[in-house]
Design goal:
It is built from twelve helices and 13 strands. It is globular and about 65 Å long. α1 runs parallel beside α12 and α4 crosses α6. By secondary structure, the chain is of the alpha/beta class. α1 links the parallel β1 and β2.
């Protein structure tokens, strides 16, 4: 079994080399993003493993199919960057990763606390030796209501973390589960929007969830609401977020991901003019905490992502339909 691993980061190399020996596979390694121009790299490979920064559409899938690719894995939980239906129509089986949700869940609660305690303003003041307290008064979590949109594995891990703070937890999901019913109160989406002091998003990006946070939904929220997004940027309309901040409707944003981040995140732009005016504008608000899509980024998660990416292909080749195969 030969697998082409695209977008290989330096922190993944050791994990990859350990797993190659364990799985008895051969790999082609490249730091390049997958493109039609570098399709030759998959020559002789039965599988391709990617990350989430590049759209894997019909043209690229056609190229890989003609070169004999039968399996495609993404080392991410999200898979909206892959045209799964078209891949399946070509006979290419696709799977995603299923690493533990703890890192993202911990990061989500950290963003909540940073927003509540106005940490960005406090840290910026110290850089100029301003140690004043005016304008930095925060709030305590135990007095607040937190709304969790999406109650899958990550949403549940967030709720588990939140139980220690003593806050009221509301939940919304199209598919309800028993664990959540024991730890939170399921309500309608409109009720969650209207009653929550903090709202955090943990849904996959689907046509039905794109821009769930928009001008209309923000209007239903409490004044001064705190919004957290450590899932997918396109869940929230960036224009609506900016309008909400400017009007004061949104009290703070904790964003690990934002609409339009492709081509920006995970790259060094210190000597560049940021190629997205809306993201550049969002960054300057004192009540916006932004990170570079790194909620997942722990030692444990990186190893699991590489393992899932390789093992998923090996399992599919052995005709084992794992829980992470996408159809």
């Amino acid at each position: 079994m030969k697998i082409c691993v695209y977008s290989l980061r330096s922190d993944e190399v050791n994990c990859l080399e350990r797993l190659v020996g364990q799985l008895g596979i051969e790999v082609v390694k490249t730091q390049e993003e997958p493109t039609v121009d570098n399709q030759h790299l998959v020559q002789g490979c039965q599988g391709v493993c990617v990350l989430g920064q590049t759209q894997i559409g019909q043209e690229l899938l056609d190229c890989w199919s003609k070169l004999g690719v039968k399996y495609l894995s993404t080392r991410t939980i999200g898979f909206n960057h892959i045209d799964v239906a078209y891949a399946n129509s070509l006979g290419i089986r696709v799977c995603n990763a299923a690493y533990a949700p703890n890192g993202v869940a911990d990061f989500t609660v950290m963003l909540m606390l940073m927003c509540l305690r106005k940490s960005k303003s406090a840290l910026m003041r110290q850089q100029v030796q301003d140690y004043s307290l005016v304008g930095l008064q925060g709030r305590e979590m135990h007095n607040l209501t937190v709304g969790v949109m999406g109650t899958g594995r990550i949403g549940q891990a967030v709720m588990q973390n939140l139980t220690g703070f003593g806050c009221k937890i509301l939940a919304y999901d199209v598919f309800e589960n028993d664990w959540t019913k024991e730890h939170a109160q399921y309500v309608s989406l409109d009720e969650l929007l209207a009653q929550s002091d903090i709202i955090t998003m943990h849904m996959p990006l689907l046509p039905s969830t794109q821009h769930m946070i928009c001008e209309e939904s923000i209007a239903k929220m409490k004044d001064g609401v705190i919004l957290i997004n450590a899932a997918r940027g396109e869940l929230a309309d960036v224009d609506a977020l900016i309008q909400g901040l400017e009007s004061g409707k949104i009290g703070a944003l904790g964003l690990d991901t934002v609409e339009g981040e492709s081509g920006i995140i995970h790259l060094d732009h210190r000597n560049d003019i940021l190629p997205n005016q809306k993201i550049a504008y969002l960054r300057q608000f004192p009540n916006v905490v932004m990170t570079q899509h790194m909620a997942f980024y722990t030692e444990e998660a990186v190893y699991s992502m590489v393992r899932c990416g390789l093992e998923g292909i090996v399992d599919m080749d052995a005709n084992q339909k794992g829980a992470t195969e996408l159809v």
